Amino acid sequence: MVDFSCSGVARAMLAMVLALSGLAAQAQVVFKVTAIPDESPTELARKAAPLVKYLEKALGRPVEFTPVTDYAASVEALVNKQVDLAWYGGFTFVQANVRSGGKAVPLVQREEDEKFRSVFITSDPRIKTLADLKGKSVSFGSPSSTSGHLMPRSYLLQAHIDPDKDFKRVAYSGAHDATIAAVAAGKVEAGALNISVWEKFVAEGKVDTAKVKVFYTTPGYFDYNWTVHTDMPPALREKLTQAFLSLDGNTAEGKEILALQRATRFIATRAENYKGIEQAARSAGLLK
Q1: Are 258 and 264 in contact (CB under 8 A)?
Q2: Whole-model pTM above 0.90?
Q3: What order do you get walking across the sheet with 63-65 strand by strand?
């Protein structure tokens, strides 16, 4: 009896140790975050650093920012569950949702993303309207960019201007800041990009507005969001959502994170908000 009892106690203690070890290991699983590379790698890393620290505290586990090479890689990373959370533009979210068979879930967006806009810029004083772009060289950002390609192309098509037929040359810079640089350097005569990046460059004095100017601003549309895979446990999804919704610009930490994310605050969002983006992508022949 004594041996059996001791053996039972030992087994119980071993089970407890294993259970605690399992919980500890689970708590230490790295939570991976990525973002579409719509700006330079150094800028993306700078923006991510304080957010990563904040999420580590909110989730109680290590958080790591995992950069990707291009927009397509960000889609594949979430679809294949190589990352847990992805910062997407509206079009990239649509691509991820289609690619995953409806398993991409947008959690939150910046308040600004309810009515996001794109701008067309030029250094040529003769270009004053979209119609003036005919016969000119024009740069978009990444082909998968919502604000740097899809929506600018959509509004051009609505104005009866087909970039592939009416422009002398269509270029893809790969990122919004690269589009500004291309226009400023005279590599192209005009470019389309995210209004938020343009305003940041103007505020920081990184662009000479006496030479490069906005000549057209699009109407508003839904854009960026933070997206997860539907297989994420509901409790973790809720904790993550609340972490973003709780960011407060009146605290030092919240102020820094929101400023870097160029956000007033984060609000809840849903997949239905991006149906207009999906329709625009299909109409422009960018989504099959």
Answers
A1: yes
A2: no
A3: 63-65, 31-35, 85-88, 225-229, 104-110, 266-268
